[in-house]
């Protein structure tokens, strides 16, 4: 690594401690909280992408269904309004990971992932939702020599599975995006792109309301109990008696206790710069404005915004003892400073650029980096959590799968091992925290040396991992 520029802290000095995407004057007005008892056919808990797609798809399956969505804060408050906006067809956290876990299902999983994003695009078009979607693919870069072989293998794998991918040498990748740190890169032209996640959430919120979904924001669900042939749902001011309940609550404290062992709440940190000047834009190239990631276990993801800022996130994924998810965790000076330093190492020509926004978002990591699906309470409660940092596209697949499970419908989706089998559980505290720290340290060592140590190889044998 090059030495850190001295002005990282200075560059952060005036940044606002809130997500960039939702910080807009034209944010929609929040729906009123729930204040009176009610009943419904389906109650959805959580107003992120998983919850919103669940509402829209439930109405598509049965327009007469009475659907209520309750959100503790406001729509897009969680990961769905805080992410990088990378829109991917992958349902398996990448091709290599899917192949390692479900080799025989991979062709089906790829097809379902491609159908999923095609249907999302068609939906946005038919609803007139402008979420700034650009199907520009992405580039993954090597910044350490050992990552070059991994990228070559990854390029071959992408090609084998029908993606348009090419390996670029250092000169070619640096000619595209001007960073002295790049040693090579894989340019993938298919399989996804970038969007504005807040505009997506707000567009889906409008579409759900237009279909008759009753949305209440500022309404936290505080408990669920069986109530004859329904579920009684407690909120601060009123109860809901719902025939079915769908939990779309990411890694926030789970309303169903068993989810604690399957989902690890991890905070992922993000910065956004001020808009770049024309001179600064020409200093970095990047004419396709595609999404960028570097390789390694601890990786950055970065992209340009429509108004020529750079969003820069990732690397320092933090787990707090005892699954803490209080709002105080959304700011961590150490992580934001580290991110700022790494930004200027990647783009030294941008020294002097300032950050306007800094935040963190909650990632629901599972030990196999794909969601856990299931039902409880006699099949009346369904859940889709654990998208592990790749849920912008996959959340719609997760929503549809959980609706299938709740309706007791056997479909191609519900037959998948990805759906039927649960990820390996994480141990409870006080073991959980030290094991996560040991694993993070082992991953960081591998990033430096290129060698997978004995601890990680042991976890691999059980199909267990730590990722954001
Ligand atoms: C920093 C960051 C970057 C990411 N980048 C990408 C990316 O570039 N591409 C990608 O594909 N994925 C990315 N992800 C992941 C992606 O954002 C999520 O997987 C996706 O948005 C799906 O979110 P969700 O709806 O399941 O959860 P959320 O959006 O978190 O929604 C859950 C909602 O449930 C509400 N809630 C929780 N408990 C209750 C309760 N008891 N009562 C009522 N409401 C409750 C919360 O307030 C929250 O709004 C990223 C995530 C983070 C945090």
UniProtKB/TrEMBL annotation:
GO terms for cellular component: cytoplasm. Gene3D superfamilies: D-Amino Acid Oxidase, subunit A, domain 2, FAD/NAD(P)-binding domain. This is Unannotated protein. Residues 41-402 form the FAD dependent oxidoreductase domain. It holds the Pfam family DAO. InterPro entries: FAD-dep_OxRdtase (IPR006076), FAD/NAD-bd_sf (IPR036188).
